[in-house]
Amino acid sequence: MNYFFGRRLLKTLVIALALTWTGATVQAETFTVDPVHSTIGFRVPHMMISKVRGNFKEFTGTFDFDEKTKKLSQIKAEVQTVSLDTQNEKRDGHLRSPDFFDSQKFPMLRFESTKITQKGDRYEVTGNLTIKDVTKSVTLKGELLGVGKGFKGKTLVGFEAQGEINRKDFGMTWNRMIETGGFAVGDEVQLVIEIEASN
Q1: Distance of CA 130 to CAs 6, 54, 170, Å?
Q2: Beta bridge partners of residue 142, listed in sequence order
Q3: In the chain, helix, strand, coil percent, each to 5?
Q4: C-alpha angle 190/191/197, rounded to 5°?
Q5: Where do the DSSP E strands lie in 48-169?
Q6: Interatomic CA distance for residues 39 and 17, integer angstroms
Q7: Distance separating the N- and C-terminal Cα atoms of the chain
Q8: Minimal CA–CA distance to 193: which of 115, 113, 91?
Q9: Alpha-carbon distance 161 to 103, whole Å?
């Protein structure tokens, strides 16, 4: 083979491979969470016999998602703590107080992913959760619910995820003893998240 012809052929192959690789790695798009069709909720043990459920009404979030490979990355979210709702005004007021979220001083809680592993439609998301200026690493286990097209032609994607945190890790230590023993509020908080987003 002619030396110069061989070099030209090699260069052409390298360029073609580079273009193919580039095309394969730029498929991810940024999706924005739709708060109307999404829920960020929590469950907390109450009086040692039941669980109180609540959710946050105001939040924003984005993530990158590759529809072809189903790769998920770059998750970011902000939640307004004052928007919490447990269907009881007195309890909500207490949760917004310095005993818990201290919403006037710390109006936002934030989450940003640091590592995401994927097995098919299932994901394990590790990230930094910041509440009351305390940042801890937490892990959520989630599942892709589906991908489809919306009424305006946009791509829709749905996820659900669950995790658990200890509220005391974030400075929320208030509690009260009950007559039968134990405490009024449990330490472990279950996170229940359902997300719908579009590109």
Answers
A1: 57, 19, 8
A2: 123, 161
A3: 20, 50, 30
A4: 165
A5: 50-56, 59-65, 72-80, 84-85, 108-119, 122-131, 134-149, 155-166
A6: 43
A7: 50
A8: 113
A9: 25
Distance, CA of 11 to chain centre: 44
8 Å CB contact between 39 and 62: no
- Per-residue buried b or exposed e for 108-129, using 16+ beta carbons within 10 Å of the residue's own CB: ebebebeebebeeeebebebeb
> At which residue do the structure tokens 């669980």 appear?
51
Q: pLDDT by residue (tens digit) across 139-149?
A: 999 999 999 99
Residues 6+ apart with CB under 8 A from 5: none
pLDDT at residue 134, as a whole number: 97
Q: Which are the contacts of 91, defined by CB distance < 8 A and separation ≥ 6? A: 52
Closest to 40 measured CA to CA, from 162, 125, 124: 162
pTM (global) more than 0.90: no
The string of pLDDT tens digits covering residues 47-73 is 556 689 999 999 999 999 999 999 999
Helical (H) or strand (E) element with 42: strand 39-46
Q: Which of 43-52, 111-120, 169-178 has the lowest mean pLDDT?
A: 43-52
